[in-house]
Write a structure and sequence with these properties.
The chain is mainly β. It contains no helices and six strands. The protein has one domain.
């Protein structure tokens, strides 16, 4: 019988609004499918905090949005194979300088495959 589980996280401070959601369904004893979404939005961020320009303008902008789909397969003996596909839209990219003043956010897709075991 399939089992469904989920986690939700939400936090807001004076400038950043964060939300994280993860859910999954366990199919049989060895197979699990999951989905996660993460969103970060800057609200009323002073522009002088982002550049050397002195300005009193405030910026409201989505910083990052990441969606991921994954599959976990559990082997006998405590081993796990996990594959995740991520679809990212935003400014939090490793090979680019972070700036909310950039006109265009980056669109990235990546795949993560991992194998873990315990003994």
């Amino acid at each position: 019988m399939p089992a469904i589980c989920f986690r939700f996280f939400h936090k807001r401070n004076s400038m950043v609004h964060l939300a994280y959601f993860q859910t999954g369904i366990i199919m049989r004893d060895h197979l699990e499918f999951n989905f996660q979404a993460e969103v970060a939005r800057g609200e009323d961020v002073p522009s002088e905090a982002l550049t050397s320009l002195k300005s009193y303008d405030k910026i409201d902008r989505e910083i990052n949005r990441d969606y991921a789909f994954g599959v976990n397969y559990y082997f006998f003996g405590g081993s796990l194979l996990r594959v995740e596909a991520h679809f990212n839209h935003g400014f939090l990219v490793e090979n680019k300088e972070f700036s909310l003043l950039s006109r265009d956010p980056s669109y990235t897709r990546y795949l993560i495959a991992s194998f873990a075991t315990s003994f």
